[in-house]
Amino acid sequence: MTIQEFLDKQTRECRILFQTLNKLILDYDKLVTVEVGSIMSVKEAFVYKQDDVFKYGLTATKNYFSYHSMVMYAFPEVLDTFKRQSKGIVFQKGCFNFNTLESINISSFRLFLEASSQRDFSPVIKHYKQKKK
Q1: Which CATH architecture has domain 3-132?
Q2: Looking at the record's lineage, which domain of life comes first (predicted)?
């Protein structure tokens, strides 16, 4: 499924959220590519990879949206500022859940993406590529 086919199936709110966050992610992290794939139990999601290794994900479920981040999982300190400036978001070790685009402090999310994109992700890539052998 293409990105456009995925977006065409979504509600207006969901489409706007995915388009907005997708643009931000791709603007801040020039090393990732995006495709439609599965993340955990969500069969259709935006999957961002660096060197063919999962880095970020964006999902929509019946009750909320989720942003998944292997950078956040490997380097939890990148989340500090965003977490302090965000209300109504449920944070977990490698993801956070939210209900609307408005619930995300976009300027803080930009700083979070900038910090995430500047982390050296190559050790994670190396680890996962060695596991595949």
Answers
A1: Alpha-Beta Complex (3.90)
A2: Bacteria
